[in-house]
Design a protein that fits this description.
Length: 255
Amino acid sequence: MAGGSDPGWALRVFSVFLLLGLVLDFIGCDPVKPFGIMNGNVTLNPSYDTVFKEITWKKQKDKVVEWYRGSGLREFPPYQGRIFLNVTSGELTIFNLTSSDEDLYELESQDLKDSITFLLSVLEPLPSPILNCTLTDEKVIVWCLIPEHYNRHVDLIKYSWDCPLEQCKNSSNPELEFKKDNDLSKEIQCTLSNQVSKMKSSIVLRTCVPDDRSRHRWLVIIAIVTSIVILLLMLFRKSILRNRRKAHEIKQGPH
């Protein structure tokens, strides 16, 4: 019985290894996802240890550059003059990146078993975040906002906070909440970051809360002005009454 089960066991083991190989091969087909910054440069590295005899890089179906040993190298528009191909490693470097460079790239070569793909994302430099705050129900809420003009790949932006208060520790939310009785002299710093850039802005919590002394000073000024107005009205009324009395005496004449 044991001898009869050996072929089945071997078949099952072979099936597992075959399935594992297919899964790994499928995973290997996923494109590499590099990031570049606008007007900067990026290198697409195949990380393959081989000796190339010919190389062709494509963006979708359009050729970027091709090279054949003994025949030289040919660049294609719009990449002419702003790429460098390392014919030893197969690396392709693109300079002066634009938003139109963002796409799927493919390295093809007879020296490779399969083509290698790269899904390139070109990001704009991050702007400085805008910090706004409000006082609501004795709580200070601070928002870290992305300027409206920045609308590319906002899903890649991460938030981080820096301040000596507990709320800033390990927070990745675009807003923080503080109590009014926290130390309002502390500076709160928000950082926007993605794969290629980072920008910071800061705000002092005290600026989010009205100054009680200033409010008291205005109340005193209003009270003084009100008192002066009342006094002037009383004097004006007294003057009117005096003038009426004099007019009445003149009208009656001497007895």
